[in-house]
Structure formats: C-alpha cells, structure tokens
Amino acid sequence: MSFQTTPAxxxxxxxxxxxxxxxxxxxxxxxxxxxxxxxxxRRVVDKGVTFIDTADSYGPGISETLIAKALYPYxxxxxxxxxxxxxxxxxxxxxxxxxxxxLRRACAxxxxxxxxERIELYQLHAVDHRIPIEDSIGALVNLQREGKIRHIGVSxxxxxxxxxxxxxxxxVSVQNHYNLWDRSSDRLIDICAExxxxxxxxxxxxxxxxxxxxxxxxxxxxxHGATPSQISLAWLLQRSPVMLxxxxxxxxxxxxxxxxxASIRLTSDEFRTIASL
Length: 277
Fold this sequence. Notes:
CATH class: Alpha Beta
Distance between the termini: 29 Å
Strand content: 5-15%
Number of domains: 1
Oligomer: single chain
Order of helices and strands: EEEHEHEEEHEHEHEHEHHHH
Structural class: alpha/beta
C-alpha cells in the first residue's frame, strides 16, 4: 500500500494499531500472557503496520514497556506514538493531570520505557480543565525544543480547544472518539483535512457494537465477503484521507481481520448508505 502523508510525515489513509488492550483487564496491570502480547506486537510489525499508538496510562506503563520489549530496536519507518496527561488511580479509572511539571515527568518516563531518545509523536491525552490548555501545550513545546519529542498532537478535544492548542503550537494530529455510532467529531475531521493534520479515531469499532448479519451493515458486509467490523473500518478509511484508525486487540487473528479491511473499497452508494445509519 502506498501511504499518504501529512506535512508532519505521519502515515494516514491506512490502519495503525492501538496498544491499549495488550495490558490487563480494566487496562490495568500486565496481560494474562506476556508472551502472547509480545507475539502480537511482532506480528503487527510483520504485517507492515507503521504506526503504533500507546500511552503512559495504559497499564500504567505496561503497554510502553511491552512495546520496547517486543520491538526494540525499532524497525525503520515505525512510529511509536504515546500520550501523557491521564493518571490511573485504579482499574478503569482515569484522572486528568496536565500540569506542565507532570507532563515533563510523564514524557521522561515514556522515553525511558520505550528506550527512545525522542518520541516521534507525543499527544496531550486529555484536557485538564484546572489548567489552561496553553500551559499544557507549552510544556510540550518546551520538550519539543529540547529534542525529546518531534511532533505534538492532542486528544479528546473540542473544536475550541483544538483552536487554542493550535495557537500555542504546531499540532499535527487529533485523537478523538469516533466511529459509526459516535460522529460528534465530524467537524474536527474536516478541520484536520483542511489543515493537513492526521485524525486518529479511538475506539473505531465502537467497542464491538456491531450490527447483526441481517442488518443493512451486515448485508453490505456479506456482499464483500467481509465482517461488519471490517466494513466499519473501510468506511472510516473512506471518510477522510487524513483518517488513521487504530483498532486494538489482544488477538493475532483479530489483528489480521482488522488489517484486511484496508483492501475493501465501498461503492459510493454503499458509503452513503452506511453514513446514513
């Protein structure tokens, strides 16, 4: 596959891999079988995936540690993107902390776990409403000037918050919740396309919320010899040229099923029909 690129050289128009679910239940602690997680990560790279998304809060620290254990030294062309700004007081619990001093520590810890001197894409994981977003982004700008991160992205932002972030730094990516059932970031996708920023939808399959085989989506899937989840991913890829879905899984079989969605081309009628669901 030939990759389209943004001015920031992030691969878009293809599928990446989200490394949240290689941790334990509740995104907390180590996986049930570390060897399976490592095998999965190596298969991700073997299948030609060039973008892996993680965060310091996945585990916490577990996902980044496993990525380095499985893949370091990293193959040429692989981007491991991480995020900071969420802390974990317990399983399934997430608390924003985007104070500049916290972000500096979080970035330093991510560099150490990933065994990197520079993180290619570092994203502000959330907006901490106790802290002006300009202060949080400013901390990342300082890290960028120091050579510890190359590009800055934002996650879980509103249109207004993105505008403020862009006024404070060069933003190359937006990572928001987006799938067939939650399209609240439609306008943000169009803004990203206009500006040449990557849009990275998290939870691109709606956490498994898929239609039945007898539904309209199911019938379109059957006509392509595909699954509804594959059609959902194909629809995302055709939604915008700056779309970079990152479906995550703990299963090699499910990984390969997801990646096969990149070869599916929906007709214009199918695309419009799915968009109307």
